[in-house]
Fold this sequence. Notes:
The protein is 20% helix and 32% strand. It is α/β, with parallel strands linked by helices. It has eight helices and 17 strands. The chain starts with 13 loop residues before the first strand and ends in a 10-residue tail after the last strand. A hairpin with a 3-residue loop joins β1 (14-26) and β2. The strands form four sheets. Strands 12-11-8-7-13-14-17 form a seven-stranded mixed sheet, sandwiched between helices. Strands 1-2-5-4-3-6 form a six-stranded antiparallel beta barrel. The protein has a two-stranded antiparallel ribbon with strand order 9-10. The chain has two domains: 8-105, Elongation Factor Tu (Ef-tu), domain 3, CATH 2.40.30; 117-250, Rossmann fold. The radius of gyration is 18 Å and the shape is globular.
Amino acid sequence: MNDLQEKPWRDTLHVETAQVLAHDSYPGKQFILRVAAPLIAARAKPGSFAHIQCGPALPMRRPLSIMRADADHGWIEFLYKDVGTDTHELAQRQAGETLSLIGPIGTWFTPDRSRPRTLLLGGGVGIPPMVFLADTLRGDPHWQPLVLMGSEVPFPFNARPSAILVPGMPEAVIATMPLLDDWGVPGRLASLQGYPGCFEGYITDLARTWLDALDKTQRAEVSVFACGPRPMLVACAALAREYGLPCQVSLEEYMACAVGGCAGCSVRVNTADGPAMKRVCVDGPVFDASLIDWSEQW
């Protein structure tokens, strides 16, 4: 059992035929897909995902994290990369076509109101849950989110200089995701590719710069949320441990069934009863970073 919460989503899982509303391509074989899926949109939460049939001739589905969900208008949005047969087939889908979805699946991020300074770290295709979480937090003035995104391919949006000042940020680091600025959510970008306005380095290095600029009282209000490739999550967990911060991570593992039947996405987690193998699809994908056995090569 995931220590973050029970699994109430099991009672609200839906198989839904979703119509493609928009499907936009970006450099680096990246795509943003928006579909009409009102049942899933009404129940999706930051960190949850959907299992998508990428094409009519493909027997296996593909799990994709939900990047945005609009319950009022009944749509959900995904960011993905064309990296294999399934996603290549998905990239061919056009507006008006339909896709079969199962969702929303999985546990989600659960911010602690005693720690209103939420540090959101998203790397590559781990960006979507951070956008979703930022969208959720911005509706409550209690929260003070900061979103840091990293990518080694062009970002799937046209970055622009941020109009929001972030104390502790290097002066030259001004690039952000326009959507975040429009929402009034501070964000910054990091990359090793020399993109204009971006931090030259890893997002954990940029996070460290920001954390070091906080005083002790401010740092005690910080919690960390992260999604991205495994090396990045290892670094995020180490950073949180170093500063004594709680950290929740969303793991990205290959899922065949995504509903707990095959156990192919299991990871080793330390529980009150000792080490145990947990399935990322149903016990996660969101876990307390301090409980994961990062030494395991899963």
